């Protein structure tokens, strides 16, 4: 019965429950980045910054709130079956699907610091959306910026 339950779960990243934290960045039991949303709707810093970075870098193709557009598929739906490592691979290296009716191309963002320096935050935001834990639009309340976040961001951005 347990195997059947695991097969029915749609989230490719597994159970999003927080199992640990490192300076305000949460991880699930498998070490994948995950979200934390308090009962009052306060989101963790990475979910909040993930929304901002998604909107700046991904929304043009994948639509508002990750819901997809005529240019690119819904990432809310995609993360129901994609694992964190698959998501990271696609964003880093790009992807091309061609069939008789269409050509879908995801460009590589592996050398773009505006994406790669925030890839975990973007994933966390989309994971929260995909799991139904976060509604549409900008999160209204977030935890404060973790100590050390700005230094890590500056080091990544160069």
From TrEMBL:
Residues 134-158 are annotated as: Disordered. SUPFAM superfamilies: Cytochrome c. Keywords: Heme, Iron, Metal-binding. GO terms for molecular function: electron transfer activity; heme binding; metal ion binding. Residues 26-130 form the Cytochrome c domain. It holds the Pfam family Cytochrome_CBB3. The keyword Heme applies. This is C-type cytochrome, methanol metabolism-related.
